[in-house]
Each structure stands twice: as structure tokens, then as C-alpha cells.
Amino acid sequence: MIHKPLLSTALLLSALVAGCASQPEPRPHTASRGVTVLVTPFMMPVLNRQRNVRLYLPPSYGTSDRRYPVIYMHDGQNLFDDATSFAGEWGVDETLNDMAARQGFEAIVIGLDNGGEYRIRELNPFDHPKNGTGEGEAYLAFIVNKLKPVVDSQYRTLTGPQNTAIVGSSMGGLISDYAIHRYPQVFGRAGVLSPAYWTADPGIYDYAVQHPLPLGARVYFSMGGKEGDSALPGVKRMHAVMAAQRPEPGAVALNIAPDAKHNEAAWRAELPKVLNFLFAPLPAPAAQ
Predict the structure, then answer these.
(1) Under 8 Å between Cβ of 73 and 171
(2) What per-residue confidence (pLDDT) applies to 144?
(3) Which architecture characterizes domain 27-278 according to CATH?
(4) Cβ(286)–Cβ(215) below 8 Å
(5) 10: three-class secondary structure by DSSP
(6) Long-range contacts of the stretch 30-34 (C-beta < 8 A, 24+)
(7) Residues 78-129: pLDDT tens digits?
(8) pLDDT tier at 284, thresholds 50, 70, 90
(9) In this structure, which of 75, 139, 143, 170 has its CB flanked by the most CB atoms within 10 Å?
(10) In this structure, what DSSP letter does residue 16 have?
(11) How far is the C-alpha of 8 from the C-alpha of 278, rounded, in Å?
């Protein structure tokens, strides 16, 4: 009889050790020195929530008096640092550092952290029968009316729409699409990666039709060939809507990567193409 409690204790300790061993090891921080989390979180009016904001400054920022284009991005936890990411980081800082060295292209990036349990509502401008009331209108109003004025006042930015992009994936792709139609005077560039259009059908398509892209706007769509058969028709449909609105050729692009899945690795691979397209030099005006 004396052996039973000892055996139970041993099994319990073994289970506890096994449980501890099964916990994933903390991932190392990978953000470059150009990335910081702003000390004071921002309060989001209407939504009454605080949100961390991550800032990337380009390599030459501290040694020049230049002004830079600005890229607003969603899901800030996933952009720069593997330690804070959901399933690996986008490598935004590494990508831009490489582009600065190879091409001379530099930009400021503002990464707005997602709201966790609120994410699916904050990044949808339309109500959804299962996900609840869409809060995308309030989310974008916060970026446009509160966050951007602070960024423009504290950093050397190029403030016009041709130098202001909004980029995101999945739900972030959806809200980036909506943003360039809702605030064309603010965002003249949009990167719409793997957009979750099925959460906003038919509202997002109707809104795009009713609010055509202005002259000079650029939109880059991408979708992975392995994201599911239901995802491809939506992005093709929206690409056709926007391409039909553009009088100038080449303002709207769609890239379908046959082997890409719905994950950060795919979006990281796509990012250089997105930025090169959105910020390519504008064509010279046609001769009269």
C-alpha cells in the first residue's frame, strides 16, 4: 500500500514536467534598432480603447533633414518582431532597410496594434451577422483624425495622399480597401493583401462602386493560390471594379501567388512588390 501514493506522486510530477516541456519556448526579439513602441498608448475615441503604436524610422532619418512617405499598417504585433507576432513577422523593417540600401527608397511606417478580441469588428466597416457591429468607421476615423496629425507634427513626413499608404492583410486588407475609398484625400496608396471580403459582402463591393478611386490613386491586390477557392473570386471581383474606375493604365495591380497560403510568410514575400508598385515614380503627364 505504501507504494501507491509514491507512484501517484511520481506520475503527477512526470505529467507536470511533460506539461512544462510542451510549452513553446519564448521567441527572440527580432525588431531592428529603427523600430520603437511609442511610450504612451493612444486612446481611440468612440471605441474608448487604448492601443499601442509601433514606429519604424528609415536608416537616414537621424542624419538628414529629409521628409518621408508614411505607410500605415494594421496588426502591428506581426510587422517587426517575431517575439510579438502571431505566427511569424512580416519583416517590414528588414524589407525597408534592404530597399533603402539597394534602391534608395525609404519610408516611415506606423504599425497600429490590433485589438485582440476586438480585431474582427475594428477592421470591418460593415456589420456582420456572426461577428457583430462593424467598428471600422471609428477605427479609421481614429487613424485619420487623431493618429496621423500627431505623426505629421512630430516626424518629418510627406503628408499628401500620393505619399500616404495604408497596407494590411486579411481583415487588414479589407479595411485598407475601404480606407482608400472612404478617405481618398488622405490615402492615395493601398496594399490589399489576402482581403477578407467574405466578411463584408456585398457592402464592400457596393461601396467601391459608389466611391470611385480618384486620379492618381494606386492599389495593389494580392492573393495566395492556396488560400481556398472561395477567396480568389472576391479579390478578382474587386480588382475588376477598381480597374474599371481608373483612366490611367497601371494604377491597379493584382498578383496571385500560386503556392502562397494565408500567413505572414506569404505577406512578407509580397511586401517588396507591394511597396515598389505603390511608390514607383509617377509617369510624366501626356503631351498636349
Answers:
(1) no
(2) 98
(3) 3-Layer(aba) Sandwich (3.40)
(4) no
(5) helix
(6) 30/80, 30/81, 30/82, 30/83, 30/89, 31/80, 31/81, 31/93, 32/80, 32/93, 32/94, 32/97, 34/58, 34/59, 34/61, 34/93, 34/97
(7) 999 877 777 778 999 999 999 999 999 999 999 999 999 999 999 999 999 8
(8) low
(9) 139
(10) H
(11) 64
> How many beta carbons lie within 10 A of that of residue 92, not counting itself?
28
- Phi/psi at 253 (5° precision): -125, 150
Give the three cell numbers for residue 138.
Answer: 471609428
pTM value surpassing 0.90: no
8 A C-beta contact, residue 178 and residue 125 = yes
Q: pLDDT tens digits for 22-41?
A: 445 666 666 777 788 887 89
**Per the structure block, which three cell numbers stand in for 170?**
486579411
Dihedral angle of Cα 193, 244, 141, 79, to the nearest 10 degrees = 20
Asked if 243 and 252 touch (Cβ cutoff 8 Å), the reply is yes
Angle at 144 between CA 265 and CA 43, to 5 degrees: 85
Query: What residue segments make up the domains of the chain, in order of their start?
Result: 27-278
| Closest to 193 measured CA to CA, from 218, 171, 216, 165 | 171
